[in-house]
Amino acid sequence: MSHTLVLEMEEPFNAMPHVSAQFAVNDWQEQPYQQVDHGAKLTRASVTRTYTGDIAGDSTAESLMFYASDSEATIVALERVVGALGNRRGSFVVESRSTFDGTEARGSWSVVDGSGTDQLAGLSGNGEFSAKRGPNGTVDLDYTLK
């Protein structure tokens, strides 16, 4: 006689912790550095944000953008977040890659290996963010701490 054991779980067994946060852009200083054919351009921006929620703190970022038109862009950035992730304090750096379609920026957010400090040393993770045209957005991050 054989038996089958079925386990039902709300989360996968090896699920990574998940956090969500909101952000507000405090400052966005963008300057073009090269014009390209047909009105396209390359720009760079220095950006500061404040995070609230499961991630709480402030950040500084450097972003590079390619605008195919005034309403479409591809964006890459490095951002240092200083504050707390849950009840752990420290800082970490994320790399983001996103697109802007004229109304919303959406993209991926990845913690840079080795960038975590203090209680966030050993942090790794990946997530997504979105921001409608304007100063506010949201981020979701699945992470591990080694």
- Strand-and-helix sequence, N→C? EEEEEEEE
What would you give as the CATH superfamily? Answer: SO1590-like
Radius of gyration: 18 Å
Number of helices: 0
SSE layout and pairing:
Layout: E1 18-35, E2 41-53, E3 55-69, E4 72-85, E5 88-100, E6 104-111, E7 123-132, E8 136-145
Antiparallel strand pairs: 1-2, 1-8, 2-3, 3-4, 4-5, 5-6, 6-7, 7-8
Any key phrases for this structure?
single chain; 146 residues; AOC barrel-like; 8-stranded antiparallel barrel; 8 strands; disordered N terminus
In summary, what is this structure?
By secondary structure, this protein is mainly beta.
Task: Provide structural commentary.
Strands 1-2-3-4-5-6-7-8 form an eight-stranded antiparallel β-barrel. The protein is built from no helices and eight strands. The N terminus is likely disordered. It is an all-beta fold and 146 residues long. The protein has one domain: SO1590-like (AOC barrel-like, Beta Barrel), CATH 2.40.350.10.
